[in-house]
Amino acid sequence: MQERSSLPSSNCIDTTSTLTVEIDNLRNYLGKVYVSLFADGKGFPHNAKNAVQVKIVEITDIPLIIKFDRLQPGDYAIALIHDENGDGKLNCNILGIPTEGFGFSQNPPLRIGSPKFQETMFPVSGANTTIRIKVIYLLGG
What we know:
The chain is mostly beta strands. It has a single domain (15-134), classed as Immunoglobulins (Immunoglobulin-like). The chain has one helix spanning 117-120; strands spanning 17-24, 32-38, 53-58, 64-71, 74-83, 101-104, 122-124, 128-134. The strands form two sheets. Strands 2, 3, 5, 6 and 7 form a five-stranded antiparallel β-sheet that branches. A three-stranded mixed β-sheet has the order 4-1-8, with no helix packed on it. The chain starts with 16 loop residues before the first strand and ends in a 7-residue tail after the last strand. The model has no long low-confidence stretch (mean pLDDT 91).
């Protein structure tokens, strides 16, 4: 005779997380914010094709709140751009200096070149994780 339990089986328990990203320091409501969520360093931060999720969001409030649902527990990193002119990319001047805003999880210090995944990764676990990213503008606009 087989015993039955009234407890839910482990495959019925939702072990996914929701990530809330608070984006501060947007300088205006123009354009959209592109937020790419990476689960490893492949393609980070420039190739959104390697991201596990990408959100493209109109700026309705500052700070802007974006949610990523149903994430597996683990380490992630975010790269974002504030595409003010709506052309779908981070514009730079002739010297290669970004003319639009950008940001990364963990808000790493500015250096020449982009930060590595390991510098920007953060853990996602439990039901909810919240992080804050400060948008950086190198040139006035």
